[in-house]
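Re: beginner question about structure tokens

> Can someone show what the tokenized structure looks like for a real chain? I only ever see the sequence side.

Sure, here's an example I had lying around. Input first:
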Amino acid sequence: MSNTRSFIAWIFIFKVGCSLCFPAENNIVINNSSSSLMGVPSNLPKQTEILDLSQNNISKIHIQDFASLQWLRSLNLSINRINNVANASFRFNRKLECLDLSRNELSNIECHFLNNIISLKYLDISYNRFLSLTLGKPFGFLKNLKYLGLGSREAIKLQKNDLKEISRNQLQEVSIGLKYLSEYELGTLLVLRTTKLHIVLPSAGTSALLSKVLHDAFTSSDTLKLSNIDCSQTCDNYINGFKALGNVRISTLLLEELTLSWLEFTSIIVPIWNTRIKNLSIMDVTLNNIRFSASQHSDRVLESLIIRRIGNSVFYANPSLVYDFVRKLKVENLTISNSNQLFLACPEQGNHFKFIDLTDNLITSDFFFQDCNSLNLLETLILQQNELHQFYKLSTMTQYMKSLKHLDASQNKLTLDEKTNCLWTNSLKKLNLSSNRLTDLIFTCLPSNLEVLDVEKNNINIVPQRVNNLEMLRELYLGSNKMVRLPECSNFRNLEILYVEGNSYHEPSSNFLQNCPRLTRLNAASNPFACTCYLRDFSRIKENTQVEMVGWPESYQCAYPVNLKGTLLKDLYLSEVMCNPVLLLLIILGSMTVLAVVMGLTCHFLDLPWYLRMIYQWTQVKRRVMKTDLQQLHENCVYHAFVSYSQQDSGWVKDQLLPYLEERENPFRICLHERHFIPGKGIIQNIISCIEESYKSIFILSTNFVQREWCHYELYFAQHRVLSEHSNNLILIVLEPIPQYMIPSKYYELKLLMAKKTYLEWPADKSKQRLFWANLQAAIGIKLTAATEETLL
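And the corresponding structure tokens:
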């Protein structure tokens, strides 16, 4: 619900503590405050546990209004116009623990509606229009009551019998508004049994009336809170009342909402100081004029003094009197915060300061406590949220504080622009410098015996590799800086706690833990992790170490690459193969080797090289055929091809070659020496004539061929034609493998052709012969001129 936060804020004002009425996470909360309601809504969920109906216009509470809310625990009806609550309004709300009816129009304090609320712990009926504070009998049955708020906006009298109904109950806190008190019977407040008492003092009245109230208030509880000390008109009654204090019971006093001058302020404080009070807290003070004068002091040492929110209603103020007052204070623990105009001088010798908190003021480091050698007992100094600028001045301020262990200078404007020999006290153990403007140079200007260092929310990019004088450091807080790599633990051998959340770490390595043997807690959450192989070891850090990982696993997510954005590091999986280059290379080489072996075996068993070679030859022949210019052919070519072969291979020529070439739909004209040599003509002349009249010359190569001398002549003349015409008309067919050593050395032309010339191999496998004939047909298959075709026919 949108107003849940404001409702929770209301819950916090329950002075008994959060444990009584603060809603748990699973409570059903209904917030209908400031909704202009004229009555209690009738459609409230029956499971409602926390209900806020404050700041509306409700005037009456009826019996049936809350009858269905059996689980109701907290009910806020404050700031309405309620003038009547039916007697049995809460009889069904057995679990009701917190009820706020303050600032309404109730006039009858008998409160019979309380009869059935046996679990009630918190009850506030203050600032109504009661004509007296005589509590009714129902208050006597509230055995679990811990907090009670009383008071009226009408003039009332207060007598002993008024509070007798709660005199048997041990309460934690009672708050009574006596702002309009007209008469008081001495001893009335003494009937209360409470740990803490809050009195809103009368705004007017005689000194005697105020003295009686203060007398009883200071002797009725352990902790007393007094508010509404308004000296705008006169302060004599308050001053006289505090001066009249004798033996007091309380040990802790809280003063709130004071409006007075500095002289009146000190006149009230000094009498209180002289009592047995140990702890004094003063809040919301307004100094309303410029009547400053020398202050009185007490020799008694106070355990603690807290002053918060001091302001001036006038522009001018004399700081020297404030200096004098603070310098002479005898107190062990001093807190002055939210003053915004505080100037604090060095205390006198012999002071008892052990703790000083000066949060949220206007202190600068230029002169504050410089050369102050009187704070020998000071152990803790808190300077949060001030105007400190020079880090070097901060260090010199501490050089005489021989007992200082903890210094907090966070939320200032500290800078350090150059390396400096800082003058720290040797006793300092804990230093908080978070939320400043410090850079990497801060590590050159730190005290030597530090055990805890907080430099979160600065401008630190890196921790230098060599950091001196920090061997005692146990806790280091570096969150929300600009660091891109983790600090070297070798610089901090005793480090136990390291916070580096909210930086710019992309791929932190877990190897730094090897130099941090004592590390027990690590916070590296909310960094932009790049989930690559470099991050793999870090993503397993929770599994491989006993170090406590703060924020794990929900705050450790991948930012890069995009496909892994939002992935938790604990769920990140990167295989060993991806992240090990040597292993990946071995796998690739092994795979390639296996693939090569498999391909080799496949080629061997399937004759794949032969098929590839034959296909290559076919494509090459086709390419040459496409480039051939038919006009360059000899016009006297009458044969498609001349075939040269050994007589021993004539069987293959006549049974395989000639039938395929001559017995087809478009037959080739083949020239053979035994058919076309002209009788009476010389053999060499016949060979030359046949070769010149044939477009192609086919040579059937075999061991028989190389042993036939005339075959060599035919090949010689055919090669000579090729060279002279720059043609490519030789076709070599190898019937069987011919080793080079079987070719006679005198046939070197044949060796050259066998080495350079692409040839066709006759396959014994019939399944491969179709590809052989296709290649041969492509090699021969160029049509002759039309005239030549007619001659052939």
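Each token stands for a local structural state, so reading them left to right follows the chain. Residues 581-606 form the longest helix (26 residues).
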